[in-house]
Structure formats: C-alpha cells, structure tokens
Automatic annotation (TrEMBL):
CDD domains: HPPR
Matches recorded under PROSITE patterns: D_2_HYDROXYACID_DH_1
Protein name: Lactate dehydrogenase
SUPFAM superfamilies: Formate/glycerate dehydrogenase catalytic domain-like, NAD(P)-binding Rossmann-fold domains
The keyword Cytoplasm belongs to this UniProt entry's keyword annotation: no
Gene Ontology molecular functions: glyoxylate reductase (NADPH) activity; hydroxypyruvate reductase [NAD(P)H] activity; NAD binding
Occurrences of domain D-isomer specific 2-hydroxyacid dehydrogenase catalytic (ranges): 12-310
UniProt family annotation: Belongs to the D-isomer specific 2-hydroxyacid dehydrogenase family.
Amino acid sequence: MDVLAIGGHGEADRAALRDAFEVGFIDGPGDLAGIEEAARAQVRAVAYKSGAPLGAEAFDLLPGLGLVANYGVGFDAIDVDAAHARGVAVSNTPGVLDADVADLAVALLTSVHRGLGQAEAHLRSGDWAAGTPLPLARRLAGRKVGILGLGRIGHAIARRLAAADCEIHYWSRREKDTPGWAHHATPEALAEASDDMVVALVGGPETRGMVSRGVIAALGEDGVLVNISRGSCVDETALLDALENGGLRGAGLDVFENEPDIDPRFLQLDNVALQPHRGSATRETRAAMARLMRDNIAAHLAGRKLLTPVG
Ligand code: NAP
C-alpha cells in the first residue's frame, strides 16, 4: 500500500481513495503499531481525518512517509515541526470550506439574537397555539461585530455580516486591506469596541485561551460570543461562568474543549445555540475537501508540487 488512510473517512471517500491509490485503512494512530513492519515501510502518504494527535511516534513507524494530507483546514492535531524535521510534508484543505463555516457562524449569531431555539420549542410545545406570550428577541442589524482572526473564514464571515448591516471590527496580527473595517490592536481592545465577537482563529498553543476571562468581561453583559474555530481558543470555564451569571448575554458554539464529551454545564443553558462541530458538514464541501486531500496525495506520489502545503 502507498497510502494509509487514518481516521473516520466516510464510505464514498474510502471508495474514491481505493479507486485512486493502493490504500489501507485504520481507525487511529494507535492502530499503527499493529500493521506489519513491511507494509508500514511501503507507506508514502497518510490521508488523515482525525482529531487525535499525530506526531513523532507515528512518523517513526512510517520510515517511507513523505506526506500527511490532512482532511480539513485546521491541522492543530498534527505535529508539523516533527513532520518537517523528518522531511515529511503536510497539506490541508483551505478555501473550499470557507462559505459553509461562515454561513454557520452567521446562523449561530442570528440564532442567539433571534432566539430561534426558544421560539421553535414554543411552537412545538403547543404554547403558541395556547396563546402563551413569547418574549421579544433582539436585532442583528446594526450590531458592532468583532471578528477575532481575519483569515479566510474570518473574512467570509465579515463579508456576510457587513451585508447584514453589521459594523465590522477585527483583530489580526497585522492590519489588512479591507473595505473600511476597523482594526484593533489587541483582542481586549476588539472586545471593548464590539457588541458581539466571532472567533475565527487557528487552533494550537499560540491561540490557546486567547478569548480570556478579560476579553469576555470586555464584551460585556449584552454581548454574544460565537466560536467556529477551535474550543482551545476560548477560556471555557470563564465562558460558562459568564453565561451562567449574566456576564454575557449568549453564545453560539460549534467547537468545544474535549469534543465530543463537552462540559455538561453547556447543556443546562438556555442562552446558547450549540452545534456538534458542523462548520464544514455539507455534502458539497466535504466532497471538495476529500478531493483536495486526494489531489495533494496524487501530486506527492507523482513528484509534483503540493497544491496546498502547510508551512
Ligand atoms: P487562516 O486563513 O489561516 O486564518 C487563521 C487566522 O488565525 C488568521 O486570522 C490568523 O491571523 C490567525 N492566526 C494564525 N496563527 C496565529 C497565531 N500564532 N497567533 C494569533 N493568531 C494567529 O485559516 P482559516 O482557513 O480561516 O481557518 C481558521 C480555522 O477555522 C482553522 O484553523 C480551523 O481550526 C477552524 N475551522 C473550523 C471548522 C468547523 O467545522 N467549525 C471548519 C474549518 C475550519 P492573521 O490574520 O494575523 O494571519
């Protein structure tokens, strides 16, 4: 086998991998040691679809490895430095998922402001038919929204919210060329200037806890926080405290620490909209991600330049 597919590749993607390559499948990096040494030595590329850490220990078991092709734009599970130190390239799937992740971010922000979950429960429970009053919701248009991390997805979110008549503020490491969106020097300054915040950072040690207790406090009691990036970017204890004690009006969350075993405190809250990491989960986008991952593997095996290398 040239290619080892690790993780939860779906049936259609497995079939496409089988059509394109000589491929073997395992559930996670922990299963690597169970593969015969001779078979491991043949592996030239890994197709990776997992949140489990992949690093030096795994690379040592694959001496012929030249590429880890990640299924996803976020590659924080992969030890890129350890890979590069062994001459192993890493690729990801940027760009093809921006629209879907941005759509979900806007949907979560809208859902919290308009109380979509509560209103649907009101209808389903018969309260509407019974004439029980439902409290008024809040307006999205006119809100000052701070985008934390104006990368590809952050930009797509900002464009959508600008079209919804929101005022766009952002923090990035450097000021960017934008249609008049306001750059702020720190995440705290962004929170001070914004009504709501949408987190679109990369995950990993550099951004861990960047939405700190202080940032959440600066957003304030009328603020809504949306996170579609990684759970690690937010101090989750501080977020839960603020949601429970009125320090923040609400939150829309697609990502969490310890997914999928999320903190049960979230499930007790009625001021949140929660999704099980569904940002890129449409048929169209998942097919495009799988295709780009395969195209990177094919390029590597043919000795061509990778389409979307990391680093
Ligand atoms: P991107 O274009 O690389 O943007 C990443 C953002 O993170 C940029 O704003 C960048 O800052 C910032 N950043 C990078 N390194 C940083 C550091 N060391 N310190 C502080 N900020 C840093 O990535 P993208 O394609 O927009 O994707 C962003 C993330 O979304 C992914 O990494 C992934 O974790 C997440 N995601 C989630 C889903 C989902 O299903 N919910 C789906 C896809 C992606 P600058 O602007 O200063 O460069």
